[in-house]
Amino acid sequence: MVQIFSPVADTWIRLFLIGGLSLAGGSIVAAVGFAHSSYMTETDIRPHQPVPFSHRHHAGELGIDCRYCHSNVEAGPQAGLPPTETCMTCHSQIWTNASMLEPVRKSLADNTPIPWTRVAKLPDYVFFRHDIHIAKGVGCESCHGLIDQMALTYRAKAFTMQFCIDCHRDPAPHLRPRDHVTEMAWAPPANARKEGEAIAVHEGIRFGELTHCYVCHR
């Protein structure tokens, strides 16, 4: 009988199979890695702003509370961006001629808002309220990272569905006393889970119901 395949054919087939599986596996890993990259999650990206506002200077060095500028964070769904009048509370007295603050002065003179580029944003199909999370004891740092150390603001956490679900499945370790909500340097105690569970019970958090679809999609 005539030999159809050469002696090395088996070796070539095995190499092709191994190569194909390696390529498929590598493609999956690359796709997952790309999906979690800063490009896709928009983390660690500092978008251009009309004024190079520094949270590190204002919140970190000067110790200005988050709620001074984001005044609606405890009472509404959005934290809100500060109106120009809030900026001019200080800057009508200090750094009055600084060139970088020209857009702020022009905004006040023209009675038009400063066109800030929003950094922390969610898709339109996601239902989220800041006031609910603040009232239950979720700290600003839990979602926004150590913003008091950011010279230019960027998104520290990827606001993926998994990020929210992980906290909603087990909220207790992420809760803190309400008077520490805006404190960036707050460290959880050794019995963080026990205290978090006590806060959850006191605030009426319904364990086991926070992962229902309607909680975030309405």
Automatic annotation (TrEMBL):
<keyword id="KW-0249">Electron transport</keyword>
<feature type="domain" description="Class III cytochrome C">
    <location>
        <begin position="46"/>
        <end position="94"/>
    </location>
</feature>
<keyword id="KW-1133">Transmembrane helix</keyword>
<keyword id="KW-0479">Metal-binding</keyword>
<dbReference type="InterPro" id="IPR036280">
    <property type="entry name" value="Multihaem_cyt_sf"/>
</dbReference>
<keyword id="KW-0813">Transport</keyword>
<keyword id="KW-0408">Iron</keyword>
<dbReference type="GO" id="GO:0009055">
    <property type="term" value="F:electron transfer activity"/>
</dbReference>
<keyword id="KW-0472">Membrane</keyword>
<protein>
    <submittedName>
        <fullName>Cytochrome C</fullName>
    </submittedName>
</protein>
<dbReference type="Pfam" id="PF02085">
    <property type="entry name" value="Cytochrom_CIII"/>
</dbReference>
<dbReference type="InterPro" id="IPR020942">
    <property type="entry name" value="Cyt_c_III_dom"/>
</dbReference>
<dbReference type="GO" id="GO:0046872">
    <property type="term" value="F:metal ion binding"/>
</dbReference>
<keyword id="KW-0349">Heme</keyword>
<keyword id="KW-0812">Transmembrane</keyword>
<dbReference type="GO" id="GO:0020037">
    <property type="term" value="F:heme binding"/>
</dbReference>
<feature type="transmembrane region" description="Helical">
    <location>
        <begin position="12"/>
        <end position="35"/>
    </location>
</feature>
